[in-house]
Amino acid sequence: MDTFINGLNLVLTVDTLLVILAASLFGIFVGAVPGLTATMAVALLVPVTFYMDPTPAIAAIVATSAMAIFAGDIPGTYLNIPGTPASAAYVGESHMLARQGRAREALGINLVCSVFGGIFGTVVLIVVAQFLAEVALKFSAFEYFWLAILGLSCSIFISSGSKTKASLSLLFGLLLSTVGLDMMSGAPRFTFGIPDLMAGVNFIPVMIGMFALSELMKYYGSHSENKKVNMTSSDNVFSQVPVHVKKYWPNMLRGSSIGTLIGALPGAGADIAAWISYAVSKGKSKDKSQYGKGHIEGIVDASSANNSGISGAWVPALVFGIPGDSITAIVIGVLYMKGMNPGPTIFMDGSGLIYALFIVFILANLMMLPIGYMAIRLSKIFILTPSRVLMPIILCFCIVGAFAINNSMTDVWIMLIIGLISHLLISNDFPVAPAILGLVLGTTVENNFMSAMMRTGGDLTSFFARPISATLGIMVIFIWCSPLIMAIYKGYTQRSNV
Q: Is the Cβ–Cβ distance between 217 and 425 less than 8 Å?
């Protein structure tokens, strides 16, 4: 109890509270600008944290990441350009609602679900942090391989339209993931003599190109002057939230649970949590036909998952020093810098810093409600600002965002090339989301498969030799076979009715 009080005293100071407020506003701004991500926002804060005490430093990172993930929904809703990768899973649903004149309604439920998911993940982090970390630690190459395959499979089955086109898009993303040094031989692959490609294709420039730049090309390639979404006078932020929460509260719990569990797996992160939660939502829904047309249900699941995934990612980072995502990879360095060495002993420290961290999580998510509401009210700038003014500004941010990751012009060229390819794909009704997931998970699939093969001497049955691995493998095979099973079932039902 004394440790908790120490943590409370560390947080409830003027300096720390002002830092949380300033970091929240910064996170909202960065997340709402297409091309700038939550990871970039946290990275930009690291030099500033050098001059802060441990509690304000960690508080700044927590508040920034939580706000940026939600704020990514704003440009996704109005412009169909996700501000952060975690918003990409349901950007189509939000934008379709905006086109129906329900932009603020979509953002209102996004905000409430984000707050709920963030608090849910924090409570889980507080209560069962060590247990979840132990589960994640049991994952070997076999489990990570199946988890990555599960994510890739979900990207196909949640895509609307042709599954063949979705599969080809996925293969394009997997091809991009093979660029760089081969894990086994160390030989360069598809680098064309460019040193910057030795480390592979960076995810952020590709995401910017696929979602932001392709949307700009679509705008400039259209002769229509009506580029904006509609917003009716009755489009209130919270007016429909009680109705949606009452109807979809099980989805909020399910999405938050999935997000926390996926986030606790090292390397998974909020974006994968959102994709998997959206896939589960569509699979379990009684109204699958509405997905892709502006359906609140998918938004509830995925937006709850991505914010709870942020909290979940701190589990392996705090308990074992293993980053759960790119944000906590940066956080671990800050923790060491501030004398909070990640590991089991961090919970035995009597200074109260760990409890201060938990309290900051709760405060940051609660502050998301008023600050997020103001951001939504001000977000009408996206539809009031003339497109001829807004689009060049977005293009500038895209170029800055692509360059700032590694200070490399190669990333800018990657963004431009991928943007052109994505524009061609979208023009021919190819979904780009599977390509993004293929790039993110392709390296995970390859590295873990090769590692498992080396460990077992090429024995494929070893992927089913461990309980968790076998369970994940059976789930993946069931998903692959589900269309055939459904076809057989429908045929049997039709014959029975005859």
A: no
Residue 97 has a pLDDT of 83
Mapping DSSP to helix (H, G, I), strand (E, B) and coil, where does residue 189 land?
strand
Residue 57 CA to residue 22 CA, distance in Å, equals 12
What residues contact 138, with CB distance under 8 A and at least 6 apart? 468
**Euclidean distance between the first and final Cα of the chain, in Å?**
70
Structure tokens at 135: 């589960």
Res 91: pLDDT: 81
Identify the H or E element spanning 188: strand 188-189
3-state DSSP call for residue 160?
Answer: coil
Taking the C-alpha atoms of residue 428 and residue 83, their distance in angstroms, rounded to an integer, is 24
Give per-10-residue mean pLDDT for the chain (498 aa). Answer: 71 85 87 71 76 83 86 81 76 82 83 89 80 66 82 71 84 89 82 85 78 75 54 63 84 88 71 82 77 81 86 77 70 75 65 77 88 82 66 79 79 89 86 78 84 86 87 87 82 73
**H or E, element range at 180:** strand 180-181
8 Å CB contact between 463 and 145: yes
Q: What per-residue confidence (pLDDT) applies to 491?
A: 79
Radius of gyration of the chain (CA): 22
Q: What is the pTM of this model?
A: 0.67
Question: Whole-angstrom Cα distance, residue 292 to residue 160?
Answer: 7
In eight-state DSSP terms, residue 84 is: S
| Residue 489, token pair as written in the block | 């079932």
**Nearest Cα to 77, choosing from 52, 40, 114, 41?**
114
| Residue 202 in tokens | 């960076």
Interatomic CA distance for residues 416 and 408, integer angstroms: 13
∠ Cα 474 480 484 (to 5°): 115
Q: Which residues contact 71 (CB under 8 A, 6 or more apart)?
A: 27, 28, 29, 30, 31, 32, 83, 84, 372, 375
* Pair 274, 90: CB distance under 8 Å: yes
In a 3-state reduction of DSSP, which class is residue 479? helix
